[in-house]
Amino acid sequence: MSVLFVQSHSGGPGTVFEAAAQSGDLAIVRERELTPAHVERADGLITTIHLDQIGWLGFAAAVQRLLGRGGRWVFNGHMLRPFLPGLAVYMPLITPKRDDFTLTRLADHPVFAGVDQQKLAKNRGVAGFYGRGHNPMPAGGSAINGIGPSLYPIDWEWAPPGGGRLLIHAGNEFWGCGDDPALKTQLAERAIAWAGGRI
Amino acid sequence: MSILAIHPGAYYHIESFETPRFAGYFDRLARPEELDRLRLDHFAAVLIPCRTPGDRLAPHAGRLRDYLDRGGTVVVTGESEFSQFLPGITFTSQPTNWWWWLEPGGDLGVRIAQPGHGLFRRLAERDLTWHLHGWFDVPDGAEVLAVNGEGKPILYIDEVTTAGRMVVTSLDPFFHHGSHFMPATTRFLDGFLPWMREALDHKENP
Which residue of A166, B88, B173, B176 has the fewest C-beta atoms within 10 A of its own C-beta? Predict the structure, then answer.
């Protein structure tokens, strides 16, 4: 499967994604140059927190067709323009305290298999980078990680009725969190592999 | 007059511009790609928020320059690629220390350089203090409002490069306020946006 990485922000996607692009596992396209044809040619998608969600609405039909042919989409960030039926607007934690950022693994998932979620909970001792709320999970979704004592689903996977799969993370890119470079690399590689249907 | 905000459409822009807390400070939201269809002279100020991709505004650099040369005001906040779309901005990035407050006696070093400026009737140093991304070499004659720990400008007003006015900062309040992260950024906007409305929403100097 060919995976499209939507490069919304300047500065580059990072070495793992650049290496995957070099080896042909990934196509990186600057958002300003993105056309529906890029999505039509892909079977997997990766978007970052910097996604132009207003502009992305113009790609909704192409994304639905991608999912309809069994494609996958890794979404990072706060969903403020629900792109597909079943998705809903991000809900932040209200005046969170430290304990509200606790992360709990709720179910196994190929992307997070063997990963100690606590290693993603803080950057240099500061909690909150991984996420500060959740994108509401549709009926039929599978929660992977929960945040806070209420275990709000901060990471979940969903197979929409029309086909395909979504991996939704409600925070900074999950492969960019924590202080372990090897773990970051592993998660980025798994994001590509999952979007490409290889895990 | 009125204020135009460029709306690049990331979630943090949507949260900052479209929700009730700050939406009233912007009279018109426009996508970067709309700039060639707008009469910028209709607006007293144009705000370009944090993390506006430079390649989306670069095609409109000439239009922004013309607007400034006719006396317009542009406000631009951090982590945008300033030099791709505005004249005379020289930025140097610096490592971002977001954990400074965990260190004993931690002090990020941000200081107000012009305490008498009207902006600081609404903002204290703690409202400018979350973390730093870099500093500017400002042109002679620019008014430096705040500096980093080394005394380098992080917020200034430039009325010398063009016939208009540029309010420039390397602080990134919209990104963090819109991410529900770092309360100081919300306090910054609580003070900065009313000042923007009061001081900049007309063609005369504040």
Answer: B88
